[in-house]
């Protein structure tokens, strides 16, 4: 693969503390889910990267997603701004079993539109989908409600489970593909046609969900990862 087929994309994760941002990054970067004492609240921010291979106009492109995982607590709010500045994409997370976390997602979305205007594509991610699959009454945020909110801000919505891996690669692959199609620095707000719910057979599901490179795929590089205090 020649150098000019490789592009870098800065992605930031935002959202209330404990909704599952770090677990989402862990699943994407390392295809693992940490439980129990392995869990540590993110301090400041953590960075990791992974390359995803996409097809664009008949040729292979490698998108290196540089992912910034931020701390969700309000204490670190001003720090989070440092990380979303200049991002090409933001994954704004909430937890499907916590209505309050969607309110926090609305806050972050407003912030992004205010400071980044339309330079940053927004993906609204409902985390911990496995919890409502196992026990539907736990659900506090409906898929339709989230999709409607996403559409109103030119974002795309999806529900994921980092525990089972459901929709995680689909989400990050979509982030990479949208970037390739839209071009760096272009108007990054998703059009009304693009802004719909992804996954679970929804109309936004990519035709090839199996397209993301995995650890067994030579086209993938499961990236290095380090933390900043
Ligand atoms: N069942 C389930 N638990 C999850 C999922 N994602 C995260 N968690 C758990 O939720 C807690 C907070 O997750 P974490 O990723 O640290 O949240 P963060 O503060 O947003 O980074 C941890 O105990 C995780 O194990 C998920 O997809 N399913
Ligand atoms: Mg975290």
Please give a structural write-up.
This protein is an alpha/beta fold. The chain has a single domain (6-213), classed as Rossmann fold. Helix content is 29%, strand content 26%. It has 6 helices and 7 strands, in the order βαββαβαβααβαβ. The chain has a 7-stranded mixed β-sheet, with helices on both faces. The model is unreliable at 184-188 and 199-229 (pLDDT under 50). The protein binds guanosine-5'-diphosphate and magnesium ion. Guanosine-5'-diphosphate (GDP) is lined by residues 17-23, 35, 39, 42, 72, 127-128, 130-131, 161-163.
Which descriptors apply to this entry?
229 residues, alpha/beta, disordered C terminus, Ras-related protein Rab-24, binds guanosine-5'-diphosphate
Strand content: 25-35%
Oligomer: single chain
Order of helices and strands: EHEEHEHEHHEHE
What are the distinct ligands in this entry?
guanosine-5'-diphosphate, magnesium ion
- Which of globular, elongated, flat, extended, rod-shaped describes the shape? globular
Number of E strands: 7
**Which value, in Å, is the CA radius of gyration?**
16 Å
Keywords: Nucleotide-binding
Pfam families: Ras (PF00071)
Protein name: Ras-related protein Rab-24
Organism: Macrostomum lignano
Summarize the structure.
By secondary structure, the chain is an alpha/beta fold. The protein has six helices and seven strands, in the order βαββαβαβααβαβ.
Please give the structural blueprint.
Layout lengths: L5 E10 L5 H10 L14 E12 L2 E12 L6 H8 L4 E7 L3 H17 L5 E7 L1 H6 L8 H10 L3 E4 L8 H15 L38 E8 L1
The site of magnesium ion has 4 residues, from helix 1.
């Amino acid at each position: 693969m020649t150098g000019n087929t490789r592009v870098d994309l800065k992605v930031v994760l935002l959202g209330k503390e404990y909704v599952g941002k770090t677990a989402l990054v862990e699943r994407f970067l390392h295809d693992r889910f940490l439980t129990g004492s392995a869990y540590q609240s993110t301090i400041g921010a953590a960075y990791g990267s992974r390359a995803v291979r996409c097809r664009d106009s008949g040729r292979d492109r490698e998108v290196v997603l540089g992912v910034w995982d931020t701390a969700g607590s309000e204490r670190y709010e001003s720090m989070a701004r440092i990380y979303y500045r200049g991002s090409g994409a933001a994954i704004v997370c909430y937890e499907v079993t916590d209505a309050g976390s969607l309110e926090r997602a609305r806050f972050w979305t407003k912030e992004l539109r205010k400071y980044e205007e339309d330079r940053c594509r927004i993906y609204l991610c409902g985390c911990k989908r496995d919890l409502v699959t196992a026990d539907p009454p736990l659900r506090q945020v409906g898929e339709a409600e989230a999709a409607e909110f996403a559409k109103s801000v030119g974002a795309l919505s999806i529900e994921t489970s980092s525990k089972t891996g459901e929709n995680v690669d689909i989400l990050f692959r979509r982030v990479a593909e949208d970037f390739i199609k839209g071009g760096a620095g272009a108007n990054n707000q998703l059009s009304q046609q693009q802004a719909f719910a992804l996954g679970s057979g929804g109309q936004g599901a990519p035709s090839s969900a199996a397209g993301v490179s995995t650890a067994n795929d030579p086209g993938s590089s499961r990236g290095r990862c380090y933390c900043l205090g």
